[in-house]
């Protein structure tokens, strides 16, 4: 559809007719679903503002932004929240309203749950958010479809359903059981870790063919003969107080099977990665499509010169679980979409006529496509991810197999190295930082190889000359530290963001842990001199102690300037 922004590359087409003949399945009649007879059109565009209920606190109506969409499904982010709380809604969902609806109906817009600023700053934040923003037109909001009369689903009927653990995915599924107004959704070809109970009039289940009619990608079913290997690393979901459940390690559920009453412990991504690692190492001939990985995007890390900081918010917090070829495709395509110059990212790769990974980019007024080779096992996948980070000149932890629970040790290492005086040893801090950094989980050898790549002095020196924001390697030497550029001007008003960061880090080592905030808030020399304690505490989230230290540094600079 013209003008629509793609969130993920299209999945390979899935044909229901062939699948129904193969399995002998019967589609659930359209009258079973609370969906429009003809799928509604989508007039929303990325960046448009609207009002939406906070899914974590349904009594609050908040301002939301359209991040992207698939057909009539919108990916939304509540303003004042982050990408970890993005959610999906249909364009005809009753929770969505045009801006101004809440005020007209005597309500008041509320900050989202977990608002990242001080609650007292909400009015001014709301004013800034809506100032000159593009509002979604009233015609974009469609009427809610009628609710079906009673639960008409039968055990064994086929449908399409949203994966609760990966809500951007819609997958083929089967009605496993029916109880009063509830149905048990079982995803075809997968074990029960992702199955769930849902009300019969849920907006997250669709009739067979809905995805094809709306141009929404439909995920392929899992391989039934390899269900144990393909178990996706996602926890169980409960809806309306009824738990989804299939015992850990149990075989794929079949229609009519009664799900266990209590859910098993959730299987974490890390464990699933470990289980899959042992499987792949014991069967090197396993197809790439049968190896599932999860890759986390830590966009708070140094992103390098090729990615635009203003576009990084479009990236999700993680990709997957997905086959390794699809996961690599999504990761690279996200980088292309968020690039300062998409052509430069495309230039990192060599076209492969037999490649199965498709990349698209628009530059020079034309749309360009490229096919590249896909990874053949887990080790080659993470090697490709490491190579991508190296080409992007970004932090080595920008893509990881596990989420970062603390500030990135690699990004902080540059500030630590700047504090080391000539002749002093930084080996202990480097070892400590290396230990804190999460390792790739595909194998010990590949983790070591990734670390060895960072140890190559020629690469590190080359990257330092290209871009000053490149994080130093874990073996940064004293001679390399001496090559750090000095401020381009003695006047602090002319300092860049990186020069402000360097000044703060060198002035007080305790403030080095907060330097990433200066990048996020884009604080250069002029902005730095305008900061006061209230701004630092409210908008940067610092406590009183660090805020007073920063204020002292600012006053010191102002005194020198005068």
Q: What structural class do the secondary elements suggest?
A: alpha+beta
Over the alpha carbons, how many angstroms does the gyration radius reach? 26 Å
Distance between the termini: 58 Å
Largest sheet, if any?
Answer: 6 strands, mixed
Estimate the mean pLDDT confidence.
Answer: 74
Give the strand content.
15-25%
Q: Number of DSSP strands?
A: 18
**Contiguous runs where pLDDT drops below 50 for at least 5 residues:** 1-12, 225-286, 418-439, 441-485
3D shape: globular
Contiguous helical run count: 18
Helix content, binned percent? 25-40%
What does this structure look like?
The protein contains 18 helices and 18 strands. It is of the alpha+beta class. It has helices spanning 16-23, 101-104, 122-130, 210-214, 269-282, 324-337, 342-346, 378-392, 409-419, 427-436, 444-454, 457-466, 478-482, 497-507, 515-520, 525-530, 533-539, 544-561; strands spanning 26-27, 49-54, 57-70, 73-78, 87-90, 96-97, 157-162, 170-179, 182-187, 196-199, 205-206, 238-239, 242-243, 292-297, 318-323, 357-363, 366-372, 399-400. The chain is globular, with a radius of gyration of 26 Å. The strands form 5 sheets. Strands 1, 7, 8, 9, 10 and 11 form a 6-stranded mixed sheet that branches. Strands 5-4-3-2-6 form a 5-stranded antiparallel sheet, with no helix packed on it. The longest helix is centred in the last third of the chain and has 18 residues, at 544-561.
């Amino acid at each position: 559809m013209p003008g629509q922004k793609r969130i993920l590359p299209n999945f390979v087409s899935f044909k229901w007719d062939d699948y129904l003949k193969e399995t002998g399945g019967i589609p659930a009649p359209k009258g079973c679903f609370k969906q429009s007879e003809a799928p509604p059109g989508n007039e929303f565009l990325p960046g448009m503002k609207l009002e939406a209920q906070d899914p974590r606190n349904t009594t609050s109506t908040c301002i939301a932004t359209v991040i992207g969409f698939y057909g009539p499904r919108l990916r939304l982010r509540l303003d004042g929240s982050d990408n970890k709380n993005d959610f999906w809604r249909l364009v005809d969902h009753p929770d969505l309203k045009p801006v101004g609806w809440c005020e007209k109906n005597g309500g008041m817009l509320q900050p989202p749950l977990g608002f990242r600023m001080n609650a007292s700053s909400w009015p001014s934040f709301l004013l800034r958010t809506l100032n000159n923003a593009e509002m979604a037109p009233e015609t974009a909001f469609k009427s809610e479809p009628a609710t079906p009369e009673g639960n008409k689903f039968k055990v064994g009927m086929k449908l399409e359903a949203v994966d609760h653990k990966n809500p951007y995915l819609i997958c083929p599924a089967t009605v496993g059981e029916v109880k009063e107004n509830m149905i048990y959704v079982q995803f075809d070809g997968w074990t029960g870790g992702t199955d769930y109970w849902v009300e019969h009039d849920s907006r997250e289940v669709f009739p067979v063919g809905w995805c094809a009619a709306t141009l929404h990608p439909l995920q392929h079913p899992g391989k039934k003969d390899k269900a144990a290997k393909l178990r996706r690393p996602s926890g169980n979901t409960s809806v309306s107080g009824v738990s989804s459940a299939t015992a850990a390690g149990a075989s794929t559920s079949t229609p009519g099977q009664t799900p266990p009453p209590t859910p098993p412990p959730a299987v974490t991504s890390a464990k699933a990665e470990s289980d899959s690692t042992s499987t792949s190492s014991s069967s090197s001939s396993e197809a790439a499509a049968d190896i599932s990985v999860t890759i986390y995007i830590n966009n708070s890390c140094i992103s390098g010169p090729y990615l635009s900081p203003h576009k990084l918010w479009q990236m999700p917090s993680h990709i997957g679980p997905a086959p390794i070829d699809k996961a690599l495709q999504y990761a690279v395509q996200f980088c292309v979409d968020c690039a300062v110059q998409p052509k430069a990212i495309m230039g990192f790769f060599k076209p492969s006529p037999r490649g199965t990974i498709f990349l698209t980019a628009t530059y020079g007024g034309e749309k360009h496509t490229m096919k590249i080779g896909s990874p053949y096992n887990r080790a080659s996948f993470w090697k490709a991810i490491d190579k991508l980070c190296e080409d992007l000149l970004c932090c080595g932890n920008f893509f990881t197999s596990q989420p970062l629970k603390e500030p990135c040790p690699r990004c902080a290492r540059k500030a630590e190295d700047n504090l080391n005086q000539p002749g002093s040893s930084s080996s202990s801090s480097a070892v400590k930082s290396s230990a804190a950094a999460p390792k790739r989980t595909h194998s010990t050898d590949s983790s070591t190889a990734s670390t060895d790549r960072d140890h190559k002095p020629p690469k590190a020196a080359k990257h330092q000359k290209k871009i000053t924001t490149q994080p130093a390697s874990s073996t940064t030497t004293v001679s390399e530290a001496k090559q750090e550029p000095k401020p381009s001007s003695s006047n602090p008003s002319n300092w860049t963001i990186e020069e402000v960061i360097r000044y703060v880090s060198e002035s007080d080592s305790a403030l080095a842990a907060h330097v990433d905030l200066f990048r996020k808030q884009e604080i250069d020399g002029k902005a730095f001199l305008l900061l006061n304690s209230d701004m630092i505490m409210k908008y940067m989230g610092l406590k009183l102690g660090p805020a007073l230290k920063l204020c002292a540094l600012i006053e010191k600079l102002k005194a020198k300037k005068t």
